[in-house]
User: Fold this.
Amino acid sequence: MRAFVDIRGAAPPSAPDLVERVPDPALVIGATGVVGGENDLARELLGGRAIGKPVSKLLVLPDAGPIAPGVRMCDRPATAMRLDGTPVPVRVSVGSASDTAAIATLRAECDDVLLERTRPLLDLAFELAPIGMAFFDTHGRYLRANPALAEILGRPAEDLVGRRDQELTHPDDRDSDLAAAARILAGEISSWQTEKRFLKPDGSVVWVVANLSFLRDEGGRPLSWLGQFQDVTTRRRLESQLRRLAEEDPLTGLPNRRRLQRELEIARRLGSQAGLDGALIVIDLDGLKAINDACGHAAGDDAIRSVGAALRDAVRPTDTVARIGGDEFAVVLPLTDANAARRVAGELGAAVAGLNVAGRALSASIGATTFSGATVAPSDVLLAEADAAMYRAKRTASPRPG
Assistant:
């Protein structure tokens, strides 16, 4: 298809025929530096019609004068500006079509040339990247690591070369790494992202977001692994602190009601798997108000802390002791039947009775309920049942000194 407008100083009528025969993108440039003709390849390269536009807006040639009739140029590096503003690296040659017109041919740089020219920039980007980066051989040994990764791992980059990534990975995360690598090699997935832990030389743990990809050449042959690592230790620490604040009683350090409900669900699942019951015990500290009134709230806080510690020492490591209210505690006993629950309740009462705060002996009212793995009642219902049993015990107990 011909594309030509008759503008002052543009090419003679033969120029459109000439530009259509050029095998590369080509523009006809008039004496005023305006595009007077183009071929289909030029429109494709530039993303639209360039006729009537100044060539200086379409081609940027470093250290070169304007393109005009009489100017000859051979295979010069330049940048073609698409009509949407996207730059495209090209090679430009200019020849005369007539005394008043020139033809500029544009040849886009091939991918191999672009890769070769960008390789030094890629090397620089690798070294200056703010996240850790490394290449590994097919056995997982470091071939190259950048300074950011060396800082994350607390080791000089040169000391990493030749070592396997598994050596520096936390033992608890090694199996998942190997499983992901096996899936990538099997073609199930192309890359893997996870959070994992590395161990520094001093034994401290650093958390990272790790991205793992396997590189192959154009023939599909394996080349190396590429790993990218971002330090998220601070974020993990903050998340841990927030979880602890959300699930921990600040006075005693025990789990709070929210955490207790989660532990109840876990105990129910364990019971379902093992075919055994579990138990929930509620303990209400008697006479706390009297201690607060007579000795102050600091003494009351000491009483609560002492009760929490005594309860925790009286149960198994697999049991959960929680503070669920001002003077109320609860204990989850997984895999425990009713007889064992009654025995434990008695031991908990004795543990509290053995305490003395500000010259006052402590006591508690205790209630319990059991549940099976098949129990469908929500945790709030189980707590209400144990609470009701505790109040029945409080009403029937002998009066205690306040």
About this structure: The chain has a mean pLDDT of 86. The first helix runs from residue 14 to 20. The chain is about 40% helix and 30% strand.
